[in-house]
Amino acid sequence: MPTVAPLDLEGHVLGAYFVGDVPFFAASSGEIHRLDMGHKTVSVHEGLLSAVVDPATNSLITGGEDGKVNRILADGTVKQIAEAPRKWITAVAAGPSGAIAYVHGKTAAVVTADGKSREFTEARSIEGVAFAPKGMRIGASRYNGVTLHWAGTNGAPVDLEWKGAHTLVTFSPDGRFVVTAMQENALHGWKLDGKPGEEARHMRMSGYPAKIKSLSWSPKGKWLASSGAPAAIVWPFSSKDGPMGKAPLELGTRANILVTSVAFHPAEEVLAIGFIDGMILGVRLADQKEVLLRRPGKGAISAMSWSSSGKQLAFGSEAGDCGVVDISA
User: Fold this and answer.
1) Is 152 helix (H, G, I), strand (E, B) or coil?
2) Taking the model in full, what pTM does it have?
């Protein structure tokens, strides 16, 4: 079995990441913990709500209840990027060339590396934000759909409508699809690469027994893994119409034990699956072979990320028990 280096923190761990080769753990209390020649801590927010790694600048982007958006470098240095006084920064995203996006209430803002900022306002609260893989384009998920905005030009926004509350949003790595997690235990997708003037086609992926809180694309975008069931539900996206008319894979099935987090390996079609009881499995898609990466722990797995080498997996839980799994051991 792979070796696990444990780290016990207090309270809910919102994110587990690698910034360069350094494991970072983001606690909802507002503290960022890192394992860099020992356990080091820096307080960055009065309540942390969102965080994401920015590969372009080798840093962690965070948003908090204090209205601040910060960048934390690999050595723990904290730099404030933006501030929205008396607002909660509920979602953040990293884009090309050091650009970042953040959300508060009905507003999404994009800040480029030179410090220039641009805001986009919706009629209803924005729940999630993501950058498209090419160009300065963001998707903002909201009630009744997603709006696509061009952040670098004055291109007209595109509204993708579907009734209901859309919480998470993600683009496929090739930019052909945008997918949201919904309040009603379902995924919804739109196919974007139709002919000019053609309306985006819908994809409905339903039947989940619980809320979908985690999504992960395979390295080349052939698969989209999701939590929210007693197995990782993995949808096929390799054909021109994505998962329409196709059944998903169900990986790591455990009777009545929900999957709470999923993370694809950065180079191979191997999926890390975290469960509500703290257990983590690794599953290879080709033959569905399972490897136990971590035995059950104190709380539900709330976050997982692979190192760039794919030899280590950082994880965190709702109860604060975290760590790094070394699969090369």
Assistant:
1) coil
2) 0.96
Q: 3-7, 168-172, 196-200: which has the highest mean pLDDT?
A: 168-172
pLDDT 10s digits, 25-76: 999 999 999 999 999 999 999 999 999 999 999 999 999 999 999 999 999 9
Q: Beta strands of 28-94 (E only): which ranges?
A: 31-35, 39-43, 48-54, 59-64, 68-73, 78-83, 91-94
* Residue partners of 71: CB distance under 8 A and separation at least 6: 54, 57, 59, 60, 61, 62, 78, 79, 80, 81, 100
What residues have CB less than 8 Å from 65, skipping those under 6 apart? 30, 45, 46, 47, 48, 49, 88, 89
Q: What is the pLDDT of residues 173-188, one digit of tens each?
A: 999 999 999 999 999 9
Burial class (CB in 10 A: 0-12, 13-18, 19+), 167: middle
Question: Cα separation of 217 and 220, whole Å?
Answer: 8
Residues 6+ apart with CB under 8 A from 245: none
* Three-state DSSP class for residue 158: strand
Sheet strand arrangement including 223-226: 215-217, 223-226, 232-236, 249-251
Amino acid 298 reads K
Amino acid, single-letter form, for residue 219: P
- Has residue 196 got a pLDDT over 90? no
What's the CA gap between 252 and 293, in Å, rounded?
Answer: 12
Report the sign of the C-alpha dihedral through residues 40, 19, 322, 320, in that order. positive
CB burial class (10 A; 0-12, 13-18, 19+) of residue 164?
Answer: middle
Q: Give Cα 7 distance to the centre of its chain.
A: 22
**Rounded to whole angstroms, how far apart are CA atoms 211 and 167?**
10
- Ramachandran angles phi, psi of 6, nearest 5°: -85, 155
